[in-house]
Amino acid sequence: MSTPAAGKRFDRSIVDGPIGQAVWKLAWPTVLQNMIGGLQGVIDHAMVGHLVGFQGNAAIGVAFQIFLVVVVFIGSVFTGMGVLVARFTGANDEAAVNRAASQAFLVAVALSVGILAPVGWFAAPALLDMVNAAPAVQREALGYLRIMFLFNIGMMSFFMLSGGLRSAGDAKTPLRLGVAMTVMNIVFNVIFIRGVGPIPSFGTAGAAIGTVLSGGLVLAYSLWRLFGGAWVISFRGVSWRPHWPTIRLLFQVGLPAGLQGIAMNVAGVLLLRFIGATEQSAEAQAAYALGYSELFSFITWTSVGLMGAASAVVGQNLGAGFPARSRQAVRAAARLGLSMAAVIGSLFLLIPTQLFALFGASNAAVLDVGRGLLAFLSVSGLFITVALTYTGGLQGSGDTRSPLFISLLSQFVLPIGYLTVVQQTRQLQPTDVWMAIVMGHALRCALSVYRFERGKWRELEVGVVTR
Q1: Cα–Cα distance between 311 and 396 in angstroms, integer?
Q2: What pLDDT is stored for residue 5 in this prediction?
Q3: Domain contains 465
Q4: Which of 64, 110, 181, 435 is deepest in the core (most CB within 10 A)?
């Protein structure tokens, strides 16, 4: 292993201060960033819902779900990078941190521009056919999906840099970047969804234009700061030749997380297919897009923030040689997640109609299906927040395989198997899909807690990369 540099950039309170404060220090900016990012999606849906109608809401939900399935492979590189950055930060090795982050960025650019953009553009129509989207929904979704595929590099880089900075102990810079990107996205949405002056209304496609433009501007600013050496991670003076030992380790650690994400998002696409088989498919898909993809995101994005904080604290403390603090960090993150999920879930039960009204949803069938969905999600949120925080603990330790198998069982085998059996016996109802979601989240919670509390992750060693 390379000789650790001085490490003066790093916040050492994460490995030697109170564990609850260490988790909170990384969690609150990340949770706030994700909630603000969720607000961006809410605004997209609200504007499209008022301008285009519920078909536009369904189009964004369907297209973004497909987009996630494809891009999640690139996210596996980010997971591997996060594990390595946290370990090297805990070990106080600046040179190794910068090398891991820069090599992950190099791979992400190659995959985004060289593979995802051209393949996604041509495959978009076939992908939309796979989910049984109604013809009106497909017409709205195609332009949105193609724009997201073609110009995804800004958004991908933002996610990568946010994860890397957080793993190195800086959660406030990603928050500032996220706020800036959201504000710009809102401005661009007003311009491109509705149309302003000589700029015509692009409708649903305008939401994608706003997303890629804001992501591209944030990327340009981030590169300036990284090459200037202003952040805890620096690209100044790093080698941009592919360093194959580092790249192999990025995929070795991260690929199971990428496969996990693919399995989960494929399951999400299959859920959309089952929803498309119900009698009111367009209305149910719209309710799903608004209730699950947007409103439930205030729980999932909060939980994902806690997952990232737990992963970073676990990784840094293992790198510093303090496994007991790693266990304490995950439990503290789970308690925070439960309290937040309970508050948000109570709103799902108390004011469901008002929440859907934010998106301009006034169709009686959409509202009726949506209220039932939110009732199920108010329970499901409690399970998923615990599952995700414990997943963060496992991944932060370098155990990315266990979450993969847990996700296959809980997010794919159980819910898809259940819905397949139901579909063979009677007409599918939206409540069948909502029940499958709750069942999957409950199983994922139980298995994740069991696996982490067994403590096998203490025995894992993340490979060493030489210069």
Answers
A1: 4
A2: 42
A3: no
A4: 181
